[in-house]
Recover the amino acids of this structure.
């Protein structure tokens, strides 16, 4: 955590959630009042955004998308543009999640174009990076992060338009997490690479850790230097679990 950067707790519902699930979002909105110093964001399935918008209006809880197309509009059946997300109430969007990189063959170049498209629509981009298990075992973690930052983070990134999420692919949904020391090494490297690329603008870009975060490990992970928040999948689906993590953040 850092005195300069407000902690951000971002949820990612992935391909989970129908209209009845929005009661969890309402509970998160109610609970947020207890943690005024933590920025809460929930990245919903696109189908729920416009129904969620009235629930979060003036609440201090933001809603976001989980992906957007790199183009502003056009013949891309099934895709969603950044403008559409804004129209439905989103203020941010995840780009380059490892599940998109793997399931949809997204390259870092595509991810950078998506971030640029998000900004053009007025969204903040949560740009995800992270190594696979085999890359970690081969000792390539920091090289992978460098390459993904070089390719996925456009030079126009600032603290006002971008958050970067470090999500080791092997830690997502597995219950496994890196040690706090390993997270510290990765986040220091990410901050240094961003600074090399963006200059001073990088100093206040929030860096989120993601991968099996829950209330029982949040304190240890969030105490690490240059960890400014978390991107949470499974534990964001239930308001009680998500708010329990927010409670940990509120104490750090
Ligand atoms: P998890 O997912 O918290 O379920 O591991 C994190 C993510 O994919 O953003």
């Amino acid at each position: 955590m850092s005195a300069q950067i407000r902690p951000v707790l971002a949820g990612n519902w992935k391909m989970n959630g129908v209209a009845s699930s929005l009661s969890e979002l309402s509970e998160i909105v109610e609970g947020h009042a207890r943690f005024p110093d933590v920025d809460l964001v929930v990245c919903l399935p696109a189908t729920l955004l416009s129904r969620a918008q009235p629930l979060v209006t003036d609440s201090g809880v933001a809603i976001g998308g989980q992906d957007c197309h790199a183009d502003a509009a056009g013949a891309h059946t099934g895709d969603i543009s950044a403008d559409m997300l804004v129209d439905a109430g989103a203020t941010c969007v995840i780009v380059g999640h490892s599940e998109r990189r793997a399931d949809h063959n997204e390259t870092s170049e595509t991810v950078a174009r998506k971030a640029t498209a998000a900004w053009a629509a007025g969204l903040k981009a949560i740009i995800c990076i992270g190594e696979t298990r085999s890359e970690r075992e081969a000792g390539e973690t920091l090289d992978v992060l460098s390459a993904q930052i070089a390719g996925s983070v456009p030079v126009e990134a600032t603290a006002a338009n971008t958050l970067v999420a470090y999500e080791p692919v092997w830690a997502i949904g597995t219950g496994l997490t890196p040690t706090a020391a390993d997270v510290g090494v990765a986040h220091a490297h990410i901050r240094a690479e961003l600074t090399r690329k963006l200059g001073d603008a990088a100093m206040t870009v929030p860096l989120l850790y993601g991968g099996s975060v829950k209330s029982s490990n949040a304190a240890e992970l969030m105490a690490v230097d240059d960890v400014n928040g978390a991107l949470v999948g499974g534990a964001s689906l239930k308001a009680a679990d998500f708010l329990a993590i927010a409670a940990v953040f509120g104490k750090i």
Notes: Residues 12, 167, 172-173, 210-213, 231-235 surround 2-phosphoglycolic acid (CB under 6 Å). The CA atoms of residues 9 and 71 lie 28 Å apart. The radius of gyration is 17 Å. The beta strands are 8-12, 39-43, 61-65, 92-95, 124-129, 162-166, 207-210, 229-232.
